[in-house]
Design a protein that fits this description.
- By secondary structure, the protein is of the alpha+beta class.
- It has 4 domains: about 130 residues, Cysteine proteinases (Cathepsin B, Chain A), CATH 3.90.70; about 300 residues, ABC transporter type 1, transmembrane domain (ABC transporter transmembrane region fold), CATH 1.20.1560.10; about 180 residues, P-loop containing nucleotide triphosphate hydrolases (Rossmann fold); about 70 residues, no CATH class.
- Helices cover about 55% and strands about 15% of the residues.
- The strands form 4 sheets. The protein has a 6-stranded antiparallel sheet. A 6-stranded mixed sheet has the order 12-15-16-9-17-18, sandwiched between helices.
- The chain binds adenosine-5'-triphosphate (ATP) and magnesium ion.
- Magnesium ion binds next to helix 15.
């Protein structure tokens, strides 16, 4: 059932198998087994994607699972028993992890003979699998296995976020729900049953003066109360578990969806609105796990209470039920208008939140431009709008609450009057005891209905909240099949072939019919006026926008065919404004390559010109960078970002105005290193300052998305008007005759350093 290929593991991107050293051999066996199984499902794994826990000798099953999942397969580490093995679908290979750390591939099962067929992943491709029975396998294997399948189509992660999805998650916890319901039923019985005793108490004990019965009833009461207390505790315990599980699932789902959204989404949606929308998830969770579950419990009680009431007096119970139905109908009539209002309330709140988050994020600009007044005005108007809408919604919501009061009061007190009348008119039909019980239990018929009112009202708000969450979580992800695609070993040759690209919603193309070839290892400058499409080229290269026409190839492979994470890992990108995470300098630099050694970190920092200031810091590489990196200057942050991009030693490095925020001295430092940085990789450097591109092998000149010229500096000076104009605008002190021969002012500065 498995196909053997001669080049079985040849292009797994791995070093040749190591035989010197047991650990290496065992490690190799694990990795080969995983690669084999993935290949069986049509996925070529890339070993650089295997993230090992630093310090661990062997990849743990969890590491292997993460690796497989990251490559678009469904994978799970599990403990299996022999009888499970025999039941496995024998068409798909399974990886068994032996006790000594090595691995085998289960390739077939013979249930009649009671044997499984195992392959040694280190064996030759044409080696036949060995039949192994239970006794033999038990000596080396205690049950650890990794199951792999093609990606599940029904994975809940891909499903739209709806109430059905949330309930799907909830109903996965069948055991907990069963326990909660069981406790609910018993609590309902235990709390309602004493009412019958109250009836006895009034009718018999008080009427006939039977002290014994009173003592007996008291004992029963005490036992039932204790029982109820214990059950309530158990039920709360289960509810807490259920809430936490639901919460965890929601959180995991939310974040993984968030990370899979394309940059386009973030550009089109303000951060504040996204944040607000996602916060709604907690409201939804509280509603489902709190309110809805509570309501469910109350209806359990109703199921117990109603038969008792009917038993005591069908006539009075019908009155109670009729009044309760009136309550429900009143509420029903108000539902639709309330729904419309709450939708507007949620929208207004989101708008309000956008202003808040924008002000907090942009507080520096707000302060320095003295925009406080404008921001406050914007905030005030949003607050007023939201408040007004909420007020109107609440006012409308007050109507059903008020209109239902007469019915509620009738259930609570009116029934007593009717019952009294009954007692007077036909003595014996209703006892005094049963009237008291109907009064007490009758209000418990209406209270679930009143909660229903509240829940239905909230449901409107929650429905609107689910809709808000949907806007974020159900936006199309960046690439549907993120794990698929080719994983070529990139060298960095770029070729544009009649490339045209228009931003979604854009009127005219940002790049028009661009055709050019950039050999691997080229240091290429990219210049042009503002808006000419320089950053767009950088974005296209990173696969941020993939809806272009024509071809964009890296090493001859069309970019859209390449596995996206693989592509981005082969790239380093430094933008004009870079984000540093909270953590030490070292953490930031090794962010994309956990486990990178200190030497590599220092090398990257030296290349980026960051070494000197890091060493001057009191804690050096362990200096903690706070949120928003206030403790490093703009120029220092930029150099750290360059170091971070260099740490992974990318084949292709894109610097988009990376040095424009630097002071002349730091810029000169980085520029002086550009040649060394570019060594062994392709570089695309976008810069407004042409002088910093003098070292480039080629410079591409763009204008309104068109390629104007592609040549070295001296050639461009001679033949490209746009380039010449830009150059002399920036270097007025140079005359046309001498320009080409002179090195850039920055380069001079750097040499003097
Ligand atoms: N995210 C976007 N959505 C829509 N249009 C965009 C987007 N980014 C850029 N554009 C448009 O595409 C064109 C090229 O923009 P691009 O950012 O590539 O220019 P640039 O050469 O990098 O300019 P600058 O030197 O100012 O950075 C511009 O007309 C711009 O308005
Ligand atoms: Mg730009």
């Amino acid at each position: 059932m498995l196909t053997d290929e001669d080049d079985e593991f040849a292009d797994a991107g791995a070093p040749a198998p190591v035989d010197n050293g047991l650990v290496d051999d065992i490690m190799e066996s694990r990795l080969r087994a995983i690669v084999y199984v993935a290949r069986y499902h049509g996925v070529d794994l890339d070993r650089t994607e295997l993230r090992l826990v630093p310090g661990a000798a062997l990849p743990a099953p969890a590491d292997l699972v993460v690796w497989l999942r990251g490559s678009g397969l469904w994978a799970q580490a599990d403990y299996l028993k022999w009888r499970h093995l025999l039941r496995i679908n024998s068409d798909e290979p399974v990886v068994l992890l032996f006790d000594d750390g090595s691995a085998a591939i289960l390739t077939g099962i013979d249930r009649e003979r009671g044997v499984v067929f195992l392959r040694d992943p280190r064996g030759a491709p044409n080696e036949l699998p060995v039949a192994v029975d239970e006794a033999r396998i038990r000596q080396v294997w205690s049950g650890e296995a990794i199951l792999v399948r093609p990606e599940r189509k029904d994975a809940t992660d891909r499903e739209p976020f709806t109430f059905a999805w949330i309930f799907g998650v909830l109903f996965k916890e069948k055991g907990l729900l069963r326990e909660i319901s069981f406790a609910g039923v018993v609590i309902a019985i235990v709390s309602v049953a004493p009412m019958l005793m109250v009836m006895m108490l009034i009718d018999q004990v008080l009427a006939h003066g039977s002290l014994n019965t009173l003592v007996y009833i008291t004992d029963m009461f005490i036992v039932l109360w204790m029982f109820e207390a214990i059950l309530t505790y158990v039920q709360q315990h289960c509810v807490a578990h259920l809430t936490v599980r639901l919460d965890t699932r929601l959180n995991l789902h939310m974040f993984s969806r968030l990370l899979s959204l394309p940059i386009d989404y973030y550009e089109q949606n303000p951060a504040g609105r996204t944040q607000y929308r996602l916060q709604q998830i907690y409201q939804v969770r509280a509603f489902v796990a709190g309110q809805l579950l509570g309501l469910f419990m109350q209806f359990f009680q109703l199921l117990i209470i109603l038969p008792i009431l009917f038993y005591i007096s069908a006539y009075l119970t019908w009155l109670v039920v009729a009044a309760s139905v009136c309550i429900a109908v009143t509420i029903f009539l108000f539902l639709k208008p309330l729904r419309a209002y709450y939708k507007r309330v949620v929208l207004a709140d989101a708008e309000k939140n956008t202003v808040l988050v924008e002000s907090v994020h942009g507080i520096r600009t707000v302060k320095s431009l003295a925009l406080e007044v404008q921001q406050r005005r914007a905030w005030d108007s949003k607050v007023a709008e939201a408040a007004q809408l909420r007020l109107r919604a609440m006012r409308l919501g007050a109507w059903p609450a008020a209109l239902t009061i007469p019915f509620q009061r009738f259930v609570e007190r009116g029934v007593m009057l009717v019952g009294g009348y009954e007692m007077l008119m036909s003595p014996g039909s209703v006892t005094f005891g049963s009237l008291v019980v109907i009064l007490i239990l009758g209000s418990r018929v209406s209270s679930p209905l009143v909660s229903l009112v509240r829940t239905l009202q909230d449901l409107e708000e929650v429905r609107a909240a689910v809709h808000e969450i949907q806007i974020v979580l159900d936006s199309p992800p960046e690439v549907v099949n993120i794990g698929r695609g080719l994983r070529p070993n990139l060298k960095g040759a770029i070729s544009f072939d009649d490339l045209t690209f228009t931003y979604p919603g854009g009127k005219s193309p940002a790049i028009r019919s661009l055709t050019a070839d950039i050999p691997a290892g080229t240091m290429m400058g990219l210049v042009g006026r503002s808006g000419s499409g320089k950053s767009t080229i950088a974005r296209l290269l990173q696969g941020i926008n993939r809806t272009y026409e024509g071809y964009l190839k890296i090493d001859g492979v069309e970019l859209r065919e390449i596995n996206l994470p693989h592509l981005r890992r082969s790239f380093g990108v430094v933008l004009q404004d870079n984000f540093l995470f909270r953590g030490t300098i070292r953490d930031n630099i090794i962010a994309s390559r956990p486990g990178l050694g200190m030497e590599e970190v220092v090398r990257a920092c030296r290349l980026a010109g960051a070494e000197e200031f890091i060493e001057r810091m009191p804690e050096g590489y362990d200096t903690f960078i706070e949120e928003g990196s206030p403790n490093v200057s703009g120029g220092q942050r930029q150099r750290l970002a360059i170091a971070r991009a260099l740490a992974s030693d990318p084949r292709l490095l894109i610097l988009d105005e990376a040095t424009s925020a630097l002071d002349p001295e730091s810029e000169a430092l980085v520029n002086a290193n550009l040649r060394r940085i570019a060594h062994g990789r392709t570089m695309v450097i976008v810069s407004h300052r042409l002088a910093s591109l003098l070292d480039c092998d080629l410079t591409m000149v763009l204008d309104r998305g068109r390629l104007i010229d592609l040549a070295p500096h001296t050639v461009l000076l001679e033949r490209c008007d746009i380039y010449r104009t830009l150059w002399f605008q920036q270097n007025r002190h140079l005359t046309q005759g001498t320009a080409g021969a002179l090195p850039a002012p920055d380069a001079v500065a750097a040499q003097g350093d």
